[in-house]
Amino acid sequence: MAETIARPSLTDHVVGALTRSITEGRLAPGTRLPTGQQLAEQYGVSLAVIREAISSLRAEGLIETRQGAGAFVAAPNANQPFRIQPLLSAGPDSARKIFELRMGAEISAAGLAAVRGTRGQVAELRRAHQAMEAAISAGGNGVEEDLQFHRGIALATNNELFVKFFAFLGHHIRDSVLLSRPEGSKWEAEQVLAEHAAILKAIREGDPDAAREAAEAHMDACLGRCATK
Fold this sequence. Notes:
69% of the residues lie in helices and 3% in strands. It is built from nine helices and two strands, in the order H-H-H-E-E-H-H-H-H-H-H. It has helices spanning 2-23, 36-43, 47-59, 92-116, 119-137, 143-156, 160-179, 189-204, 208-227, and strands at 63-66, 70-73. By secondary structure, it is mostly helical. A hairpin with a 3-residue loop joins strand 1 (63-66) and strand 2 (70-73). The chain is elongated, with a radius of gyration of 22 Å. Helix 2 crosses helix 3 (47-59). The two termini are 35 Å apart.
């Protein structure tokens, strides 16, 4: 059992290191990677781990293997999927980066929701906000209800790309929010609820400028809360 748990983490370590070297330009397209044995020695892992890492990178389109020649950094591909892991390490700094990534989309989504949101969608937003209030009053952290509120804003844009982007960030958003509300500690519950209430009010009133301003204030405050953790 111990070996089964350890190997994936070692593979992830190698995949993350090589991915960063490629995406940050230290390994240019066309560069031949060291041999499997050389990589194993460099990262202090077995050849089996290196083979798993190379297979993962090939599946992601980051490298290509040539019969009898080895593995090479692949040329940039427009169809190559965007990935957050393993580029992003865990910790407070990762939460900040997630909030920064969300900021533009959240601000734009709030403005669009104020203009395009249907009566039913706005009603769902109000219910999500009330559910968060109830969860916090009952002693919870309100994270799931918080996520539902932001999911509702994405839906109210009536642009499926916002919904897909929110779904793509998925657990990264949950992790970043949880980091700002550690269990057993005091956090700014009333402030977060007030920030959500301001966004909801602007959307209900059909005021896109106010909705964007409220969303920006919320994201700025989220960044500030992450910085203090």
